[in-house]
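Aim 2 progress update. The chain analyzed this quarter is reproduced below.
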Amino acid sequence: MNKTLLSLLLSFTTFNAISQDSSAIARDTIWKVGGLGSLTFNQVSLTNWAAGGQSSLSLSGLISLSAKYKEKKTSWDSNLDLAFGFLKGEQSTLQKNDDRLEFNTNFGHQAKGNFFYSANLNFRTQFANGFNLPNDSVVTSRIMAPGYLTLALGLNYKKGDIFTFFLSPASGKFTFVLDQTLANSGAFGVKAAEFDPSGKLLNPGRQIRAELGASLTAKLQLEIMKNVTLKTNLQLFNNYSDKIAANRGNIDINWDVLLSMKINKFLTTSLMTNLIYDHDINLPTYKKINGIKTEVGSGPKTQFKEVFGIGISYRFQEIKKK
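Predicted structure tokens:
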């Protein structure tokens, strides 16, 4: 994970070095509001197809809204991202392939130049239930199970609308598992329930886990060539308060990348990726035994998701001045 972290930081440093300050906000701007909405549709239809496979249908939507305030030495930036998608195979049930609700807000007061004393809030959860597929009767996640809230105080570096880098030595991270069954199992790092030898519940699992640590957030939005835009957001968190000393060196990573290629006013090709590492989340390990996929253990793993498609998109921007 140290090599992964170093690669991510080097990527942000490189992009920042080649970028130029092209901020669209005038000095007298009070509010700048913008957003992007996209709908991507994919279909595969097979009839008498000798090579095998099955027909499928997928649909995914994304709404990204932003509001930025600036007056003299005060700034306030907020973003709301909503994403949901599903996949239906000819021989499988309807299942989601994208599900995200995330809100970020940062309030800052200029210290000197591009540096701001800042307070930052990040909230993440999902909309719909997740299942241990192909078993669609075992729920593995719900809305606010998990939910993550991070509050941080620190120093923020801003380079127009292109690049921001926020570093906080004092951050509080709260993990919510507001489903008692999942909380009892110790899902997503909360304290699991305690049972006596006969299986009787002694103490229910905790639904909230609090951590104190340091955090880093780096954001980049850059037009790397005509009609091709890169938007990426890296979030890191290191827990000071873990009682197990060996775990204090582990860094939680959440890294989103969106590459958009505009075809015309409404059609866009997009590639979205999301990389997550959280040492407190145990994922199953499988091994084939006698040709059957069998769960043999569990542990923390790097999670990765990729969504690629061509769809309809619309972007808007409104600037309100004094």
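The helical segments are 2-18, 180-184. The two ends are 48 Å apart (CA to CA). These observations will guide the mutagenesis experiments scheduled for the next reporting period.
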